[in-house]
Amino acid sequence: MIRLLRIEWLKLRNSRAFIIIGGFYIILMALVAYGMGSFEVTTGSEDGIQTTLNLGKLGVFDFPYIWQNITYIAGFFKYILAIIVVIFICNEYSYRTVRQNVIDGLSRREFITSKLLMILVYSVVSTVVVVLITSVLGLIFSNNRAMDVIFLKLDFVLAYFLEVFVYLIFAFFVAYMIKRTGFVIITLILYTFVIEPIAVWQIGEPIGSFFPVQSIRDMSEIPFKRYVKDIVELDIMEHAGIGAMFRTILWGTGIAALTYYLFGKRDILS
Fold it and tell me: Which residues of 164-175 are buried (b: 16+ CB within 10 A; e: fewer)?
């Protein structure tokens, strides 16, 4: 395992794209998380009167809800990590390093394992960054810093890790199948934001909730509804969706297994 990670790290450490996009990802996510305190939500009551609410003043950084708030926002940044995965997988084919790795003695299974290990590392590092950002903002701005409160709702951190990890596996699979960076990114965008949402909408519940991206989305829903619940009657998600987490794990395992199977069948040396 260490050998495979070292091989991947040697490919990445001098990559300008990896450093720039990775740095941009961390800085942008920290700025947006901090900027949540300035977000405003406009809502209307039953009598038609609109009210604008400032999330910072409403306690968006208060423990324990900050875990759900920031992991939900950070989930949108997984697409930046997906671009990094797509670029490097497609480059493996463009520069024929897949072929060279196999010729040099790396088995096909080891090649796929090395990619999944790097995706695991990306996901762990991303989760650690989110935990650090959340902890710092919470300790500075939260009105409630009691230890028994701080560690509530950490299930949303686990849901965030699964969200990033499984979506990156999905991006890896699409990149492996198509191999062209531009086409892969377009395919991911179309599937994530157009094709699957339309399919889920047409099919409806409960079958629609079993689609891969929908399973990821169902682990956590928009948390800011709690700040307008006194104005508009809404259901609030207090814990990460256990069923959705289970479906997401199944999708991640299934896609990874399919990638192993297909990579073992394809002629990569031609």
Answer: bbbbbbbbbbbb
Distance CA 173, CA 175 (A): 5
- Residues counted in the chain: 270
What does the block give as tokens for 164?
A: 């990033």
Token digits of residue 173: 């699979």
pTM, to two decimals: 0.90
- What CA–CA distance (Å, rounded) separates 236 from 225? 7
User: What pLDDT, on the 0 to 100 scale, is given for residue 194?
Assistant: 96
Amino acid identity at 39: F
76 or 263, which is more confident = 76
Going from the C-alpha of 219 to that of each of 69, 72, 159, 173, 246, the distances in angstroms are 13, 10, 6, 22, 9
Show the beta-strand stretches assigned E in the chain: 40-44, 50-54
Q: Tell me the pLDDT band of 181, cut-offs 50, 70 and 90.
A: very high
56 pLDDT exceeds 60? yes
Whether residue 86 contacts residue 118, with contact meaning beta carbons closer than 8 Å, is answered with: no
Phi, psi at 176, each rounded to 5°: -65, -40
Cα 26 to Cα 65: distance, rounded to the nearest angstrom: 22
In angstroms and rounded to an integer, the radius of gyration of the C-alpha atoms of the chain is 21
